[in-house]
């Protein structure tokens, strides 16, 4: 990349044509996308809109790259709110000197993940900054989806008796990024769990009329997601340590480095809450798609008593408070 690629002239037009639009295939070259879908016209349906920025280091890691995580992260933010993701935008901040080959791999990864998720990347932007002003590539994505009529997922709907379920193992993304940085001289083959969860959420929403809410456990991990839900619902959530799906490799890395896997980032893991009578239906629906085959019950909701909180029943029979993450265990994780 050179600064000329961001100058608005022929070099920029060639870059956009050869690297971006040839892959994403937008319907026009205008500065806006003009969108229509039968789902938008459904009576009672609502639009959902989200945006996020991605600055992960390194930009390529086992199990994914910054492009894949940008698509998955935005799709998942829509999906856990009950929306069917439809369209994405993608804006790139590219450092001078970045290899075009790297950019092509990232764009191809985004297209492949968008196809898997059933969404289209319909508009975007590119900017090139001088050496040292960025770290290879930063991506900002926005997403639009449609929430069907009658669907209202909200943490405030969670109530005592409800059951917490996760779809996948915990901490894989944070562990994969940490190992990929090579700063700790760790030798571990741990791919990120980076995955789109739209199909999983659609299956659960169809099977479970009592689906209360869902959160993807990204930065701050499962612990932060549970605390956010407990606070908004005004309830107590108790999880059981012996039910938490964590790989031995992730546990070992955390023990060595003094980290807690409950706070490690995930990019393909969510936690959702359903009424007890719908637990079996939820598990079956989640396990019917690849991203949910590891679905397990991890806890239950109780009256708040002394206030909203998250606790964990330990392997030794005691209980400990699981607080919201303070600060950040690992920077540049997504």
TrEMBL record:
GO biological process: protein maturation
Annotated ranges, domain PurM-like N-terminal: 42-147
PurM-like C-terminal domain: residues covered: 159-305
SUPFAM superfamilies documented for this protein: PurM C-terminal domain-like (SSF56042), PurM N-terminal domain-like (SSF55326)
Gene3D superfamilies according to UniProt: PurM-like C-terminal domain (3.90.650.10), PurM-like, N-terminal domain (3.30.1330.10)
Domain of life: Bacteria
Coiled coil: none
Family named by the database record: Belongs to the HypE family.
Protein name in the entry: Hydrogenase maturation protein, carbamoyl dehydratase HypE
Source organism of the structure: Celeribacter halophilus
